[in-house]
Design a protein that fits this description.
By secondary structure, the protein is an alpha/beta fold. It has helices at residues 28-36, 53-65, 80-83, 88-99, 122-138, 151-161, 174-182, 199-207, 237-248, 252-267; strands at residues 12-17, 43-48, 69-73, 105-114, 143-148, 165-167, 186-189, 213-215. Helix 7 (174-182) packs parallel to helix 8. The protein binds zinc ion (ZN).
Length: 273
């Protein structure tokens, strides 16, 4: 196994995190402070992935408090049930209102399709995804995409709209990764990359060009080995970076730095580092 990787201070970009999750209720303030307000922290940038209105507001509030913390706003497909009675116009009006609250909204997301559970209305999910994709284009913002067990429908929508964005927590086959890259999108990799049985993901990582790779935690989920199953935090990206660097045959710091630059480029962030 690779030697322990100590990233340079401020060099990690977590392109996708969920610090509003209940898993952080006990120590959220001290954790955010240690990650985002200390110059010695290895983490120099994070983007909150919103899942609903409340989560979008959390991202906006947190971004106002920490210089290197940005947010998305949007509706995750898993929240479709509670939105079903609403029109797309009124849902987009609510997003529009949020855009006026902060200049640190870097993306619309996370949006997408989730067919994992039978309960979610698939037609409504598609409508909501298309509406948010059009909304993002109208506001020149990139998108954070979530796709679970819905590859074919999802790719069809990508082919139709050709959006700017990242397919986050990529878990698919190399052919899918290849098409996503050819459509001009970025591919986000979590700690899943380090899991023993994640052979497909490792193959996909191998073929995605380094300038299209984003590193992310999706925390509190997807902690990399050797912390699999535990609560994940942004600094754990060092393990994913060390693992991915071996696959790409480059130094972990080089992968970390490149992923940082890619994150800044996709989200159009003007920050140090
Ligand atoms: Zn997420």
């Amino acid at each position: 196994m690779e030697r322990e990787f100590e990233p340079r201070a401020g060099s990690i970009a977590d392109s996708h995190c969920h610090y509003d999750d209940g898993a952080f209720d006990g120590d959220r303030e001290s954790l955010l402070d240690s990650l985002f307000a200390q110059p010695t922290s290895p983490v120099g940038l994070a983007v909150h992935a919103a899942t609903d209105m409340r989560s979008s507001r959390f991202g906006i509030d947190t971004a106002a408090r920490f210089e290197n913390f940005y947010t998305s706003v949007g509706y995750h497909p898993e929240n479709c049930d509670e939105l079903r009675g609403r029109s797309m116009t009124s849902l987009m009006d609510d997003l529009e209102e949020l855009l006026g609250l902060s200049d640190k909204i870097a993306a619309i997301g996370e949006v997408g399709l989730d067919y994992h559970y039978d309960g979610y209305d698939r037609e409504f999910q598609k409508k909501l995804l298309c509406a948010q994709t059009e909304f993002a284009a109208a506001h020149s913002l990139p998108l954070i995409f979530h796709c679970r067990d819905a590859t074919e429908d999802f790719l069809q929508i990508l082919r139709r709209y050709r959006p700017r964005g990242v397919v986050h927590c990529f878990s698919g086959a190399p052919e899918v990764a290849e098409e996503i890259v050819s459509l001009g999108l970025y591919v986000g990799f979590t700690g899943l990359l380090t899991f023993k049985n994640a052979k497909k993901v490792k193959k996909s990582f191998e073929i995605v060009p380094i300038d299209r790779i984003l590193l992310e935690t999706d925390c509190p989920y997807m902690a990399p080995e050797p912390f699999r199953g535990r609560r994940c935090t942004s600094d754990m990206i060092r393990y994913t970076a060390a693992y991915g660097a071996q696959i790409k045959n480059i130094l972990p710091q080089q992968l970390t730095d490149t992923a940082f630059e890619n994150t800044k480029r996709l989200y159009q962030l003007e920050i140090r580092g």
